[in-house]
Amino acid sequence: MALLWAAHHPGPFPDVPFDHRHDLAYLEFNMAGCVMTYLRNDDVPGPGAVEVLRDCSVTLDNNNDRNGCRTATP
Questions:
Q1: pLDDT tens string for the chain (74 positions)?
Q2: Residue 17, helix vs strand vs coil
Q3: Which of 18, 44, 54, 56 is in the most buried spot, having the most CB atoms within 10 Å?
Q4: Angle at 30 (CA atoms; ends 10, 71), nearest 5 degrees
Q5: Rounded to whole angstroms, what are the CA distances from 25 to 4, 8, 18, 34, 58?
Q6: Cβ–Cβ contacts within 10 Å for residue 66, how many?
């Protein structure tokens, strides 16, 4: 997980329409909190993390559909 986060974190913000950036920034914020808690807790997710990440997955799928991107989430 730490390697994946390290590879993702410094990446550029995706090139999406301006009015969709708020949704993606909110997703980034929520996912970052879950990942950082997971890493600090020796690979134990924080309370509610699974639900938060599931909600993020649905929101990301909706954004991908709106932006014409293929969805890669299960």
A1: 777 777 767 777 777 778 778 888 888 888 888 888 998 999 898 899 989 988 888 888 877 777 666 655 55
A2: coil
A3: 56
A4: 75
A5: 18, 14, 11, 14, 15
A6: 13
First CA to last CA distance, the chain:
18
**The one-letter amino acid at 9:** H
Rounded to whole angstroms, the Cα distance separating 34 from 58 reads 16
In angstroms, rounded to a whole number, what is the distance separating the alpha carbons of residues 56 and 50? 10
pLDDT at residue 70, as a whole number: 61
Q: Which pTM was predicted?
A: 0.65
Q: Where would I find the H helices in 1-74?
A: 2-8, 21-40, 49-67
Show the tokens assigned to 42: 């020796």
Q: What is the DSSP letter of 74?
A: -
